Amino acid sequence: MFTGVQRPVLKFSEICTFSVLYKAYLAARRGKRSRAATANYEVHLLANIVNLVYILQTKIYRPGLFRVFYVYEPKKRLVQAPAFVDKVVQHALVDNLIYERITNSFILDNYASQKGKGLHFGLDRLRGFFTEYWNKYRTAEGWVLKADVRHFFASIDHDKLKEKLKKLDLEPIVFDLLCTYIDSTDGLPLGYQTSQLFALLFLDEFDHFVKERLHIRWYGRYMDDFFLIHPDKDYLQFCLKEIRVFMASLGLELNEKTQIFPIRNGIDFLGFHTYLTEEGKVIRKLRHSSIKRMRSKLRRWEQDYPAGLVTREKILQSWQAWDAHAAHGNTWSLRQQVRDRVQNILKEEI
């Protein structure tokens, strides 16, 4: 709704300072100091930042080429990684200029790539939804619409996205730079920090449609993966038809795995399968594929560690990351089994 209060225009000059770009460099290197690109940038850090200030202030900055590669876990996908200097500029843009402007219209239950949210926030919201549902109806009988968008990042229409960005009151040079990132490839490149925000923005109107037009109380979305919970299967079938029409207006379509199923089947969401029992208890089980991948790693480590093909530090780092994630489910026995096998591999207590 128009309130009559005009927002200040977001100006490019706000990121063209040494202090802002130094903070952006610190954010870009976080967790990546051992990588060659980061180390090379650090060798002449002060000169690199001074030069970056200059090329931004004189408006001659242009993003470089991507480094393209595949990652294979949890599934195969193409990553287009920008040069380190472009990551610095991206952090300056997102963290200091456009983040608040883009996210201030987001609903609470849009979980991805935002401060104070994320995977475990989304899981906790789902737990709360199931508890609310049981408290209201005193049953686990009901229905779930579970869906995701087919080839989401690759399918985002550039012109439609730019129309959404035009509504944010950006200085023309900021808008033009964001368009340069958008037009660097078909769809949105997975490696850009801006791509995460743009993807969230692209479906923000959809979130409001589900909440305010379809009146779904128990709804959550993580990027393009979403669910609706409702006691009436017929109403969810109506919602699905409306959602397909809405997605088509954005140039998107739902994955063929989209389905409506009973609540008692549980919801596969954010790496866990979450169930509501007839007694009102919420149980969260780790996704089978995550267990399978860890068991495969354990078998590989049992061969590779004695042969010197993998280090103790690498094993511990991988196991600790998996264990921290698994700890958010009802997984105590499973985690103890995995811990015991890691100890047997390393021949030490951990």
Brief summary:
With 350 residues, the chain is of the alpha+beta class.
> Uncertain regions: pLDDT < 50 for 5+ in a row?
none
String of helices and strands: HHHEEHHEHHHHHEEHEEEEHHH
**Structural class estimated from helices and strands:** alpha+beta
Distance from N terminus to C terminus (CA atoms, Å) equals 56 Å
Classify the beta-strand content into a percent band: 5-15%
**How many structural domains does the protein architecture include?**
3
Mean pLDDT figure: 94
Biggest beta sheet attributes: 4 strands, antiparallel
Secondary-structure blueprint of this entry?
Blueprint: H1 18-29, H2 36-43, H3 45-57, E1 67-71, E2 77-81, H4 84-103, H5 119-137, E3 143-148, H6 152-155, H7 158-166, H8 172-182, H9 193-202, H10 204-213, E4 218-222, E5 225-230, H11 233-249, E6 259-262, E7 267-269, E8 272-276, E9 282-286, H12 288-304, H13 312-326, H14 332-346
Antiparallel strand pairs: 1-2, 3-5, 3-6, 4-5, 7-8, 8-9
Helix pairs in contact: 1-3, 1-4, 4-9, 12-14, 13-14
Name a few traits of the molecule:
350 residues, alpha+beta, Alpha-Beta Plaits, 4-stranded antiparallel β-sheet, 9 strands, 51% helix, flat
Tell me what the structure shows.
This protein has 350 residues and is of the alpha+beta class. It folds into three domains: 12-104 and 154-198, no CATH class; 119-149 and 203-285, Alpha-Beta Plaits, CATH 3.30.70; 288-346, no CATH class. The protein has helices at residues 18-29, 36-43, 45-57, 84-103, 119-137, 152-155, 158-166, 172-182, 193-202, 204-213, 233-249, 288-304, 312-326, 332-346, and strands at 67-71, 77-81, 143-148, 218-222, 225-230, 259-262, 267-269, 272-276, 282-286. The strands form three sheets. The protein has a four-stranded antiparallel β-sheet, with helices on both faces. Strands 7-8-9 form a three-stranded antiparallel β-sheet. A hairpin with a 2-residue loop joins strand 4 (218-222) and strand 5 (225-230). The longest helix has 20 residues, at 84-103. The chain is flat, with a radius of gyration of 23 Å.
